[in-house]
Amino acid sequence: MKIVVTSILVDDQAKALAFYHYVLGFEPKQDVPMGRHRWLTLTSPNDPHGVELLLEPDAHPAARAFKSAIKQDGIPATSFGVRDIQAEYTRLCKAGVEFTQPPTDLGPVIVAVFDDTCGNLIQIAQRH
Fold first, then answer.
1. Bridge partner residues of 52 (DSSP)
2. Which residue windows are transmembrane per the record (predicted)?
3. 88 lies in which domain range?
4. pLDDT tens-digit series, residues 47-56
5. Cβ-contact 53, 20 below 8 angstroms
6. Domain count, the chain
7. pTM confidence score
8. 107 DSSP assignment
9. Which of 35, 45, 69, 101 makes a 20 to 30 Å CA pair with 81?
């Protein structure tokens, strides 16, 4: 068994696609209309056949409450690995991304946390 799709709850799929593609650099993979919403996935440009990130609409009331609660508590919705966290932090800051936590050394990893503009905090992490 392996992970093939993982999802992140977003408040607006078009806005999320623009952020995750043009700002973060993920590549669109699937875009299938599904009524009011879409099956909308992206992959890492370094692994186009790898795990797909599904931009899942947060249309269910429980989803919005969950997102709000974990964001308010400062908990990232997911984590993305990076090779050079300082370079990624600098690049994203220049692109206007708002960080809630700058790169912080936590022993085996250095992490930083930013707002994805779609209702989530996202962590980036670099292993030592």
1. 5
2. none
3. 5-127
4. 999 999 999 9
5. yes
6. 1
7. 0.95
8. S
9. 69
